[in-house]
Amino acid sequence: MNFKTGDKVIVISGKDKGKEGNITHVLRKENRVVVEGINIVKKHVKGNGQTAGSITEVEAPIHASNVMIVDPKTKKPTRIGHTTNKDGKKIRVTKKSNSSLD
User: Fold this and answer.
1) What are phi and psi of 4, to 5 degrees?
2) N or C: which end of the chain has fewer CB within 10 A?
3) Same domain, 80 and 65
């Protein structure tokens, strides 16, 4: 998976299609990402002796195939490629404008 925390992504399918947000958490084993403000679900929290129960809204993970990186230059969704820089370090680049993401 080519996503990292802090990447700006756009949702390309599902109920939040077209919305943008930053990745807050990456779940590599499940191939999912958590995006701020996307895939909001209601969670029922059981109360205990000190606090009352409540219903809170949390961001649920979304499958990585349903999001695409936003190109920093063109502001459009794009795929990610890899190349090496002058120092020989592997970096991520966008396919649309060939600009660096790291």
Assistant:
1) -130, 160
2) C
3) no
